[in-house]
Amino acid sequence: MRCLAFVVFLCLSHSGVSSSQVNGASRYFESIKDSPLKLRHFLTTMPKGGDLHSHLSGAIYAESYLAWAAEDGKCVDIKSFVFIPGPCDGTNDLRPVSEIYPGGPQDVDGLLVNVIDALSTRDYQRRDLSGHQQFFSTFSRFYQASLGRQGDMLAEVTSRAAKQNIGYLELMHSPGMIAASLEAERNSDLAKAYGERLDHSVIEKIAKAAVDEINEMEERRSILQQCKNKGAEKEGCSVSVRYLAQVIRTWKPEQVYAQTLLAFMLMEMDDRVVGLNYVAPEDHPVSLRDYRTHMSFIAELSKKFEGARQNVALHAGELTLGLVPPEHLGWHIRDAVRIAGAKRIGHGIDISYDPDMYQTLQLMAEGEVAVEINLTSNDVILGVSGKDHPISIYLENSVPITISTDDEGVSRINLTHEYQRAVETFDLGYETIKTVSRNALQYSFLSGRALFQNTMDGSLNNECRKGLPQDLEDRSNCSDFILQSEKALMQWQLEKNFTTFEANF
């Protein structure tokens, strides 16, 4: 940790931030670390660069799904707690959601509580299911409630982010993925020769429809937040959003290939789709069986789409001994980086099982492959927390980390909660969490060059080596550079926000 503190000091000397302000914030931070309430308030108001690991569907709280399902006339099976389209057939097991939410005197059997619990991991320790089973069971339950509500979902997550001073979200979303999979399923020859016999024009048509879907959800968000109504904009409008096309890896190989092709097409077609990710349980038998095949898909398509955006973030190493046999541990992270060219790793829990761990860590550090840390998710799904969590290994070996939520609605947390958990569990100092906040933009897939050459050694790029401007109208080399880079512009704004925040101390 001493190294990181020194690193950030170097960064401050370049950025022009007052060291007295930073020291004041750091001293106050140390004085409140043992006070959870004061710490939470501090971390809520502290500028946070972004959340790079967030599944849009899993970011929605159960109460929102219930409200939308009630408005849309949908039903819930009171035994399985699965939402289904209306009208209800009148059986005892099917109830209109409108009769359950928001509840009332008629909810004498506690049905509403049970539904919320079924749609989340709330009080998961009291259930017969493991945290892993409970977590992954929620998605099929609330799926029906999400249909037609993507814009509402986007408004919810951006509004929540704004309240926590988060500037950027990189959301995992799957527009068109089911359609691409169905197309692969219909093409019987595809199982023999994946992409060679796949009609790319069909996938291209699906990609265009997916872009239309993104347009519609963003327009709905804009309407809900009044983002085009000057002077009446709600705070969520200030949060920038980009998307990772998420490929569902538990399906047949030809279907995963088709989804991956769609993801690359979306990255090429729409600047808002900045990367891809593979999702669904990494411990699923199909995920384990086809893992290297999946990595080869990404490698192959990266070559075919050479010149287009090549941003890959992968769930890798979200595994523990007991959850899977030992032979599946210790190589997923390495293959994700070496074969698929992953620029970020999600979770990265099983790194200690890699027999070449230090070589892999060196590869990640030198290649600036960041790890997206999801503490609550790792605890609930894998039972990994405290000293068993590899966050310290990554920090000690100069591998950049970000802190993220994974599925804040399912886990019933937010990004501030995850920052606080990191501080309290690993005794992180202010300098470290500030670096982590910066990392969220540094290692984002936003376009353009980054403001920092390296957040670990604190060096700014050559154009800004003399320091950051107070405004962007001075026509300096640094200002010109910032205005030409989407990423650098957001980073510059984050630094301004830190200056304002630290002035309070």
What's the N-to-C terminus distance? Answer: 22 Å
Largest sheet: 4 strands, parallel
- Runs with pLDDT <50, length 5+? 1-16
**Which structural category fits the helices and strands?**
alpha/beta
- Beta-strand percentage range: 5-15%
* Number of helical elements: 22
Total of domains: 2
> Radius of gyration, Cα only, in angstroms?
23 Å
What fraction, in percent, of the residue positions are helical? 40-55%
CATH topology of the largest domain: TIM Barrel
Mean pLDDT: 91
Provide an overview of this structure.
The chain has 505 residues and is α/β, with parallel strands linked by helices. Helix content is 49%, strand content 11%. The chain folds into two domains: 62-146, no CATH class; 150-442, Metal-dependent hydrolases (TIM Barrel). It has helices at residues 2-15, 19-32, 36-45, 62-71, 111-118, 131-146, 150-163, 177-186, 190-193, 200-225, 253-269, 285-289, 291-304, 332-338, 357-366, 375-382, 391-396, 408-411, 415-426, 430-442, 477-483, 486-502; strands at 51-55, 75-77, 83-84, 94-96, 168-173, 240-248, 273-279, 313-316, 344-347, 370-373, 401-403, 452-454, 459-460. Strands 1-5-6-7 form a four-stranded parallel sheet. A four-stranded parallel sheet has the order 8-9-10-11. 47% of the residues are buried.
